[in-house]
Amino acid sequence: MKNPWKKRAAALLLCAALTALVLPSFAQTVRPGPSALVRQMVAGKTFPARLVGYTWSGDAADMSLTFTLCEAETFSAEQIDALQNGDTVTVGGFPYEVYTVSTEEGQVVVNSGLEYTDTLVFRLQDSGVYTAFTETDVPYWRDSVAVECLVSPDAVFLDWGDPDAELPLTSPMEALMDRLMDDAILLTPDNTEITFDEEGRLSVLLYRYSPTN
After folding, report:
1. The dihedral formed by the CA atoms of 94, 99, 104 and 107, expressed in degrees to the nearest 10
2. What is the average pLDDT across 157-186?
3. Which stretches of 105-201 are assigned E, i.e. beta strand?
4. Is-contact 156 193, C-beta < 8 A?
5. Residue 45 half-sphere exposure, CB side, CA atoms within 13 Å?
6. Rounded to two decimals, what is the model's pTM?
7. Are the C-beta atoms of 169 and 185 separated by less than 8 Å?
8. Domain for residue 199, yes or no?
9. Distance CA 87, CA 89 (A)
10. Do 67 and 78 belong together in one domain?
11. Residue 180 and residue 155: Cα distance in Å, rounded?
12. Is residue 170 domain-shared with residue 67, that is, in the same domain?
């Protein structure tokens, strides 16, 4: 007597083989994560940053951005408090001659007045050092290190480019990439902060209004 279950099993195997030929493959692409050194340096932290490059093919899985992480230039309180006419102070890589010095609570202003085009404002921080700003309140930044940022699958782009908006517009990172492709946005430490998750992947990019935009 023939076994009907053998026929059924053979039919099921044939059906599975035909299905595999007809249906598209959904094979995943596996890529390495951030290096241990990058994770140790950036995980869970936020940095002002300057975009120097990106990769975008239209597929979120292939997205990557390379940023130079920045930090404000700092100056010792002893040196800034001792500034006087005739001194030279180097800020942003340029030497400035000191003509006038005025001191207010928590800050030292160099070359204040309409007759000067190189006014510098030094503000005392809680850490006991001064940071330098332009007269329009823009910090002087120092480039620190370049990092190729792998992007978290749920990363968000917070667009606060409208100075009148009460809250930033929240979008997926694809919205940022489209604007980059159209040359419609420039990311600098004056307007950009990036935050990394605990795995060292880019999780939040905040773009906000700046007088230098």
Report:
1. 10
2. 94
3. 107-110, 120-124, 129-134, 141-160, 169-172, 192-196
4. no
5. 14
6. 0.77
7. no
8. yes
9. 7
10. no
11. 16
12. yes
Q: For residue 66, what are the β-bridge partners? A: 53, 148
* Total structural domains within the chain: 2
Which of 138, 155, 176 represents a domain boundary (last residue)? Answer: 138
Dihedrals φ, ψ of 47, to 5°?
A: -135, 145
User: HSE (CB half, 13 Å, CA atoms) of 127?
Assistant: 7
Q: Would you place residue 37 in the very low, low, confident or very high pLDDT band (cuts 50, 70, 90)?
A: confident
- Residue 201: inside a domain, yes or no? yes
Q: Answer whether residue 20 shows pLDDT above 70.
A: no
Hunting for tokens 């100056």 — which residue is that? 75
Token pair, residue 168, equals: 């930033």
Closest by CA to 111, choosing from 149, 83, 131, is: 83
- Tens of pLDDT, residue by residue over 87-114, are 999 999 999 999 999 998 899 999 998 8
Integer Cα distance of 64 and 45 in angstroms: 18
Rounded-to-integer distance, Cα 184 and Cα 168, Å = 17
Beta strands in 15-140 (DSSP E): 46-55, 64-72, 74-76, 88-91, 94-97, 101-104, 107-110, 120-124, 129-134
Same domain, 119 and 171: no
Domain of 185 in residue numbering reads as 36-71+144-208
The token duo for 137 is: 């309140």
Name 173's Cβ contacts closer than 8 Å, sequence gap at least 6.
60, 63, 151, 155, 156, 157, 205
